[in-house]
């Protein structure tokens, strides 16, 4: 009987001493994802493509899809932006309209939205789907499908 009581006590003690993982605060994480998009919009409107790209996963696994094709990797995506938007006039003024932000898991969000570029050479409008991943405590775009 004493050994059973001792085993039960040790089991309960071990269960109580397990480190607790912090609760997932979906609203706070969604706000952080939205902040990344705001920072991207601000960088774009300053003509800062590298600042805009700070919101993307700096990895060869990044995927960017558009009607012009598929870019794989952070550098290829930056190069594609530089080719498509060679100067501030071509970049214009970017405005995002976020339609939906959905938590897929504590480390992934899905974002759908619209973008509008105001430019003297002609405005551009389109839609996008982004998958955000939390990497080293920072939310970054790991997948971008823009049309």
Tell me the series of helices and strands, N- to C-terminal: HHHEEHHEEEE
SS elements, strand count: 6
Overall geometry: globular
User: Treating each run of at least 4 consecutive H or I residues as one helix, how many helices?
Assistant: 5
Describe this structure in words.
The chain has 147 residues and is α+β, with helices and mostly antiparallel strands. The protein has one domain: Roll (Nuclear Transport Factor 2, Chain: A), CATH 3.10.450. It is 37% helix and 36% strand. It is built from five helices and six strands, in the order αααββααββββ. It has a six-stranded mixed beta sheet with strand order 2-1-6-5-4-3, covered by helices on one side. The protein is globular and about 80 Å long. The mean pLDDT is 91.
Features:
Nuclear Transport Factor 2, Chain: A; 36% strand; alpha+beta; 147 residues; six-stranded mixed sheet; single chain
Secondary structure elements and their pairing?
Layout: H1 2-16, H2 26-45, H3 49-53, E1 63-66, E2 69-72, H4 74-84, H5 88-91, E3 93-105, E4 108-118, E5 124-135, E6 138-146
Parallel strand pairs: 1-6
Antiparallel strand pairs: 1-2, 3-4, 4-5, 5-6
Quick overview of this protein structure:
Helix content is 37%, strand content 36%. With 147 residues, the protein is an alpha+beta fold.
